[in-house]
Amino acid sequence: MGNPLLDISAVVDEAFLAKYDIKPGNAILAEEKHLPMYDELSSKENVEYIAGGSTQNSIRVAQWMLQIPGATSYMGCIGKDKFGEEMKKDAQAAGVNASYKFLFTFAHYYEDDNAPTGTCAVCIVGGERSLVANLSAANCYRFEHLKRPENWALVERAKYIYIAGFFLTVSPDSIQLVAEHAAATNKVFMMNLSAPFICEFFRDAQEKALLYADYIFGNETEARTFAKVRGWETENTEEIALRISQLPKASGAHRRITVITQGCDPVVVADDGKVKTFPVILLPKEKLVDTNGAGDAFVGGFLSQLVQERSIDECVRAACYAANVVIQRSGCTYPEKPDFN
User: Which of 36, 51, 277, 317 is a plausible cystine mate for 90, CB 3.0–4.6 Å?
Assistant: First the structure.
């Protein structure tokens, strides 16, 4: 489950960021002052429209890496409009891009009559992206939608469940229901810290959900914010990852593993009281196109191996591969087939 958004992506300059009070590399929810920005982005010659949203990106990449038709499912809320129709086409493997081939077994979208499909402004400066999400219909997902028999059947069939932290702003009750189901049935439940503002302003909901998480993903900025709001007097990523992995857990069926990315610095994995680091695939600066979706792609690559019961080392290797592919392209996109062995 997640917030399906249509990415409106364009290269801008620092003056554009300043005009709309956007910090480089940040991810925030849109305020009133940001709303004119979407039309301005849409008017740019280099604008691209890409089906996105954090969880949807990760699931798309996992499906691409697996190359097994119908291995994944996804739920979210869209509007009854042209962008929503495009989202459904992509999910049904009939989109404009071959990369959507075999996307999902089921993409069950709850369609809202009153709100347009959500959008995310992707502002790219020097390859670094800043995200401003206008959730719109994505914010209208209802707990009742999850409980419909045809939708709950997807949850019951799933063996691995991943939800980005962004969904905490929309339907924490849905997350809680799924998390409790996973714990009761010994399934693997995973979440992402997603953004500093989630750690700061949705702490209570986040703590309730993370109690059930077997895997927790995040980047170094999110991890440090997570630590700061809890009064942990450290900015050491390895120490924070270890402490997150040792937080109270609702189910003892699986130990908790924390995975923290650090851009071009090594990936940190805390597992069973130990910390291990993994080098990333270094990319020459001239090959960097767009970091939008890099973290989502990392998770997708990781999931693609985890569901095949591969080792953590292999999961991280696949994660780094997927992220490396995506940052050399515009948006969270990829070639028709992966070249991963």
Answer: 51
Nearest to 316 by CA among 233, 194, 215: 215
User: Any idea how long the chain is?
Assistant: 341
- Residue 67 region by backbone torsions, left for phi larger than 0, else alpha for psi between -120 and 50, else beta: left
What average pLDDT does the segment 183-190 reach?
97
Place of tokens 């450290």: 234
List the catalytic residue out of 21, 173, 296, 339. Answer: 296
Q: With bands split at pLDDT 50, 70 and 90, how would you rate the model's confidence at 99? A: very low
Global pTM value: 0.89
Q: What is the pLDDT of residue 120?
A: 92
In a domain, 36, yes or no: no
Helix H or strand E segment including 132: strand 128-134
Count of the separate structural domains present in the chain: 1
Decide if 112 is catalytic.
no
Q: Is residue 254 part of a domain?
A: yes
DSSP helix/strand/coil, 166: helix
Q: Of 125, 119, 137, 113, give the one whose Cα is nearest residue 35.
A: 119
Give helix then strand counts, H and E, for the chain: 13, 13
Non-local (6+) Cβ contacts of 14 within 8 A are 24, 125
For the ranges 73-77, 299-303, 336-340, the lowest mean pLDDT is seen at: 73-77
Beta bridge partners of 73: 106
**C-alpha span between 70 and 72 (Å, rounded):** 6
Burial degree of 181 (CB within 10 A; 0-12, 13-18, 19+): middle
- State the CATH number of the domain containing residue 169: 3.40.1190.20
Asked whether the predicted pLDDT for residue 39 surpasses 50, the reply is: yes
Could you give the CA distance from residue 156 to residue 185 in angstroms, rounded to a whole number? 9
Domain interval for residue 151: 53-115+139-327
How far is the C-alpha of 206 from the C-alpha of 8, rounded, in Å? 28
**Is 26 a domain residue?**
no
